[in-house]
Amino acid sequence: MARTGASASLAEPVQVPRDIDLSPGQPIQSSQPSTDLGVIGRRSVSDLGAIGDNISGSAVNSGAMHDQLYNLQMLEAAYHKLPQPKDSERARSYTPRHPAATPPSYPQVQAPIVNNPGFWERLTIDSYGTDTLFFAFYYQQNTYQQYLAAKELKKQSWRYHRKYNTWFQRHEEPKVATDEYEQGTYVYFDFHIANDDLQHGWCQRIKTEFTFEYNYLEDEL
After folding, report:
1. What residues does the NOT2/NOT3/NOT5 C-terminal domain cover (predicted)?
2. pTM value > 0.85
3. Fewer C-beta within 10 Å: the chain N or C terminus?
4. Dihedral through CA 12, CA 14, CA 17, CA 21, nearest 10?
């Protein structure tokens, strides 16, 4: 990004506190999610992690009724929040959050490519790209880049926990899954910068026996 560096951004911690309930888990190497695990909060028959024969027909019907009611509620909410002409986004100029003195040969404006969704899609090819998505989400708050980063993280089955301000991903099939929560082993991204006690770090960690309550699930961009 123009006139701002990673070192300058990292020097100022993200103003998002760590909740004491989320004790640090074991660091793990970055890896792509398994396509067989589904995503947090998706409660269809195929994503519960249980054998299909063990799920009764009444449970399936109950889930279908729940989804239908949810869709009706969303339609009702959308009707009362129809877009207005004043909602059109105005052109915004880029202002560096951490300006730095640079020589004239250094780019003085933000590269147009960072506003291209295709650029962010290509970042998902390797693990370093995933770290870049997390960096954009936490250090470019309230920007179009943060929105595009969150969109790509969700494509990788990451889901945002509003209580811990942290992204989670299933590490294995949940041991328990209900309409209110699921419990099992998860990967979460520790967005804090590493310090001397090694309890924090810009890395992915694994958390066992964790209960993800769906009322804390941010499932919209």
Report:
1. 79-217
2. no
3. C
4. -110
CATH 2.40.10.220 applies to domain 25-42+118-218: no
pLDDT at residue 24, rounded to an integer: 67
Cβ atoms of 183 and 210 within 8 Å: the answer is yes
**What is the rounded CA–CA span in Å between residue 145 and residue 137?**
8
Domain residue spans in the chain? 25-42+118-218
CA atoms of 215 and 180, how far apart (whole Å): 7
Q: Distance between CA atoms of 61 and 76, rounded to whole angstroms?
A: 23
Closest CA to 163 of 13, 17, 25, 24: 17
- Identify the three-state secondary structure at position 217: strand
* 3-state DSSP percent of the chain in helix, strand and coil, to 5: 35, 15, 50
What tens digit of pLDDT does each residue of 140-157 get?
888 899 999 999 999 999
DSSP helix/strand/coil, 180: coil
Cross-strand bridge partners of residue 184: 210
CA-CA distance, 194 to 36, in Å (whole number)? 32
